[in-house]
Amino acid sequence: MPVPDPWEERLARTRAEARRFYAFLGDWVGAGEAHGEATGGTLSGVALLDGSIVEVTERTGDHDDKSFYRFDPDLGGYQVLHMMAGAHLREYPVEFTESGLVWVTPPGEPSVEWSFTPGELCCEVVWPGDLRPEVRVRWRRSR
Question: N or C, which terminus of the chain has less Cβ within 10 Å?
């Protein structure tokens, strides 16, 4: 009887768990509002390495973001590594909701929530104490 390989089991689990982020995969075109002004842009999602990391690149107006989503088998949870201009680099836990996912941000930072429907993504960024999103963009597949 073959002995299970712990490394292969880890790889299989991280790939399987990363599939929860595959809603981002592909090329998207977005339109919405950011900081009180109309905005639009592009979003691209790709699976990296063995498919266990999903890279999401957003370009809206003059603003670029890059996020890397993964399942951390050591912590037993989902994470996002978020980067943007100004050497901003933060890592947040991610929780899944009925309609998508939310970044678990510390007090004083905005909440980031994604909802997924067939052929559409929606991102809302809400600062603590605000009732309306500071950013709300709907993304539709470009191809």
Answer: N
DSSP 53-96: EEEEEEEETTEEEEEEEEEETTTTEEEEEEEETTTEEEEEEEEE
Domain count, the chain: 1
Which candidate, 74, 79, 83, 105, places its Cα nearest to that of 93?
79
Residue type, 81: L
Look at residue 143 in the predicted model and tell me its pLDDT.
67
* 78-125 pLDDT, tens digit each: 999 999 888 889 999 999 999 999 999 999 999 999 999 989 999 999
Per-residue pLDDT at 125: 94
Average pLDDT over every residue of 12-36: 93
CATH number, domain containing residue 59 = 2.40.128.20
The whole-angstrom separation of Cα 71 and Cα 67 is 13
Q: Establish how many alpha carbons lie within 13 A of residue 92's alpha carbon, considering only the half-sphere containing its beta carbon.
A: 21
pTM of the model: 0.91
The C-alpha angle with vertex 34 and arms to 55 and 18, in degrees rounded to 5, equals: 20
121 belongs to a structural domain: yes
